[in-house]
Amino acid sequence: MKIIVCLKTVPLPGTVKVDPETHRLIRESSQLIINPYDRFALEMAVRLKETSGGQVWVVSMGPPQAKEALIEALGCGADEVFLLSDRSFAGSDTLATSYALARAIEKMAPFDLIVCGKVAIDGETAQVGPELAQRLGVPSVTQVVAASTEEGALKVTRVLDHAREELRVALPALITVERDWGRPRLPSLKRLLAAQNREIPVWGAAEVAAEPDKIGFSGSPTEVVEVFSPTYDGQGEIIQGDNVEEMVGRLVSILRERGLI
């Protein structure tokens, strides 16, 4: 069984800065980490490999420093890793990103399963996984918390707002994985040391035969107009009293004085 994991690096919360003139993120000054949801995706892929056999290949689209995340993925049980990196990919929205990833995965084919995190914490769109499945022509299941192979298919459990679903999906397929269904393993020291000497393949747009008008800004129908740091100008007020009824009455009076009720 050949499993491909899509892994993204995202800025560590608290290290993100915004350019006051361009209103865009200054990613160069941010510390990059593996997207938390993708850690769970990698863990699920490695567990499937351990129970069903096969290999786990990881692909990441990002800047050159994303190699560190791929080395960590090798330490966690990945067999092969690939970096999709090219200046022409800069500015890609989810549609352009899914196109570039699809071109890379087509080069890595054949495959049985693609595993993605449900969402990236820097964009919160949850679009790349389903878009990628559509481009590759395979079925997809989102918000998966459990998966096992079953006679050439995949049996999965997915979470909804008020229920869980158990589905059987034909392979090849794509799933996106939820957080907090288990605990991602730490990298093995032995595997990490071995990974330090690995030559990580870096593919640009030419290597995956990506069409220029479908990647980067040219291939992105959506545009981020502005990014800004929120400001908080309001002041809080603590309502005190001898009992709940008194405090509720005081709150109602304040709301009426301010025309809010």
From TrEMBL:
<dbReference type="InterPro" id="IPR014729">
    <property type="entry name" value="Rossmann-like_a/b/a_fold"/>
</dbReference>
<keyword id="KW-0813">Transport</keyword>
<dbReference type="InterPro" id="IPR014730">
    <property type="entry name" value="ETF_a/b_N"/>
</dbReference>
<dbReference type="Pfam" id="PF01012">
    <property type="entry name" value="ETF"/>
</dbReference>
<dbReference type="InterPro" id="IPR012255">
    <property type="entry name" value="ETF_b"/>
</dbReference>
<dbReference type="GO" id="GO:0009055">
    <property type="term" value="F:electron transfer activity"/>
</dbReference>
<protein>
    <submittedName>
        <fullName>Electron transfer flavoprotein subunit beta/FixA family protein</fullName>
    </submittedName>
</protein>
<dbReference type="InterPro" id="IPR033948">
    <property type="entry name" value="ETF_beta_N"/>
</dbReference>
<keyword id="KW-0249">Electron transport</keyword>
